[in-house]
Amino acid sequence: MQKRARFFAAGINNFVNALSGNDTIIYQKGGGRDTILSTDSLESKDTLAIDGYDLSEAMFVRVTNTASNHNMLQIRFKGTNDQITLIDYFAEQVDGFDNRMDEITFTKGGNTTTLSQSGFEAKIFAQTNNHAPWVNKHPRPIKGEIGKALSITFDKDTIKMRMLMTASCLIVSHLPARELMDATSHYLTGSPLTPARSP
Question: Domain boundaries in the chain?
Fold first, then answer.
């Protein structure tokens, strides 16, 4: 499928709602504060091409979206007011669709740097007041029986975190004593509640 390119007019704050398919969205230096919503199938390859900046001038920041339950990804550029916001970037996959970019390219002075999705996600700074992991996709249905021990293994890409140590602290330390989760294997076990007895 041929890629479709969407150009941003320099100096104007734009909103782009990308369509399905393999899209290349081009942002040019001086383009102001642009906002992108890119909901697409996992089979499609969407690229954000940034012209006029190199990677060393970019900052990737995870910020809260007060209008929804999903955080956004902002790309800010040092010493300027230029900014790209990817709406609901961290929303989980639904029916094979997500709001992610598959790659981001930076072109300046004839040199191009290409980052894969895992490459630029590793550079994301979380807000100091937001250290939460994010749900990458819906977990499989969980079935349990009253009075019986529970054991579940989540797919490794269900919950994403920037650091394994963070995973250990966030998941394990916030579970009740009767529930245990291995942060590496994502294996959750739980014992049934003991009914309270009257004195």
Answer: 4-126, 134-190
The set of residues, in sequence order, having a beta carbon less than 8 Å from that of 37 and lying 6+ positions away, is: 15, 16, 17, 18, 86, 87, 88, 99
Structure-block tokens of residue 147: 């009075």
Which of 137, 116, 121, 118 has its CA nearest to residue 86? 121
Tens of pLDDT, residues 60-83: 988 888 777 788 899 999 999 999
pTM: 0.61
List CB contacts of 18: < 8 A, sequence separation 6 or more.
6, 25, 36, 37, 38, 39, 40, 46
Relative to beta strand 4-7, strand 23-28 is parallel
All residues at 6 or more sequence positions from 19 whose CB lies less than 8 Å from its CB, including other chains: 4
Tell me if 34 sits within 8 A of 16, measured CB to CB. yes
31 neighbors 12 (Cβ within 8 angstroms): yes
Assess contact for 45 and 103: CB atoms under 8 A: yes
